[in-house]
């Protein structure tokens, strides 16, 4: 019997750059001690969910997060795991590795807003954001909107479609804040930007007959469950 296809999409654990407020994008830093601890708790909270497969982006922080979760899982040693470069973070070009204030200082000005708050209040689109990043990128590395949309959509859709074709079930996917937020907007363009997704949060999607339905967004209760389990051990 076919099971529902459910994607558990996880934002990677807290990294060095997350902690000091730097933009990561395609640059990378490892999880901090606190970040690792949070993902260990998440892994404990997810350990009894039957995953058919596990995926992460090919960024080190996503791979590190996936490994910790699978270490905690009751069947972690036998769950097939692969990386997919299509579900990595947006590339911020020359702004990669800079302080968040640089990115969110320059982008609103390019789009003729006073500041970040003004920009977010006025509901900019992800295309506006992608165009502004390209305009700000002096290295000419940032991806055009159409390219980001193509890779992010096909990355997640291919995983979901493959799982459904193989009988469905749950899939664990570790990705990145802006990428997950962007995917949600591709499913439902009335949603506000979810740029503030928590590290280790779970966003759950149901996939059926080529269509995604959003179940939960930015859910941190699995981390809380893991903390309770660790207290009782």
CATH class of the largest domain: Alpha Beta
Give the terminus-to-terminus CA distance. Answer: 36 Å
Q: In terms of per-residue confidence, which ranges show pLDDT below 50 for 5 or more consecutive residues?
A: none
SS class: alpha/beta
Approximately how much helix is present in the residues? 40-55%
Give the total of domains. 2
Mean pLDDT: 95
CATH level-two architecture of the largest domain:
3-Layer(aba) Sandwich
- Note the beta-strand portion: 15-25%
Sum up the overall morphology in one term. globular
Total strands: the figure is 6
What series of H and E elements makes up the topology? EHHEHEHHHHEHEEH
Count the helices. How many?
A: 9
Rg over CA atoms: 18 Å
What is the name of the CATH topology of the largest domain? Answer: Rossmann fold
**Strand ordering within the main sheet:** 3-2-4-1-5-6
Question: Brief description of this entry?
Answer:
This protein has 233 residues and is of the alpha/beta class. Helix content is 45%, strand content 17%.
Description:
This protein has 233 residues and is α/β, with parallel strands linked by helices. The chain folds into two domains: 5-89 and 147-232, Rossmann fold; 92-142, no CATH class. It is 45% helix and 17% strand. The chain has nine helices and six strands; from the N terminus they run βααβαβααααβαββα. It has helices at 16-20, 33-46, 60-72, 100-110, 116-121, 126-136, 145-165, 177-187, 221-232, and strands at residues 5-11, 51-56, 81-83, 169-175, 202-208, 211-219. The protein has a six-stranded mixed sheet. The longest helix has 21 residues, at 145-165. It is globular, with a radius of gyration of 18 Å. The model has no long low-confidence stretch (mean pLDDT 95).
């Amino acid at each position: 019997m076919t099971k529902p296809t459910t994607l558990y999409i996880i934002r990677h654990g807290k990294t060095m750059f997350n902690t000091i407020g730097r933009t990561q994008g395609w640059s990378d830093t490892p999880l901090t001690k606190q970040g690792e601890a949070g993902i260990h708790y998440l892994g404990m909270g997810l350990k009894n969910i039957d995953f058919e497969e596990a995926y992460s982006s090919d960024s080190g922080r996503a791979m590190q997060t996936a490994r910790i979760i699978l270490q905690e899982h009751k069947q972690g040693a036998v769950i097939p795991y692969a990386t997919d470069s299509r579900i990595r973070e947006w590339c911020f070009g020359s702004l990669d590795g800079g302080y968040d204030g640089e990115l969110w200082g320059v982008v609103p000005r390019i789009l003729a807003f006073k500041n970040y708050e003004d920009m977010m209040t006025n509901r900019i689109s992800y295309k506006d954001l992608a165009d502004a990043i390209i305009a700000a990128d002096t290295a000419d590395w940032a991806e055009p909107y159409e390219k980001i949309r193509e890779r992010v959509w096909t990355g997640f859709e291919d995983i979901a479609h493959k799982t459904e074709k193989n009988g469905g079930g749950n899939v664990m996917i570790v990705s990145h804040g802006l990428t997950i937020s962007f995917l949600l907007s591709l499913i439902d363009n009335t949603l506000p930007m979810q740029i503030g997704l928590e590290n280790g949060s779970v966003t759950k999607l149901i996939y059926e007959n080529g269509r995604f339905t959003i179940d939960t967004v930015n859910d941190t209760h699995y981390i809380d469950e893991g903390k309770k389990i660790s207290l009782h051990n």
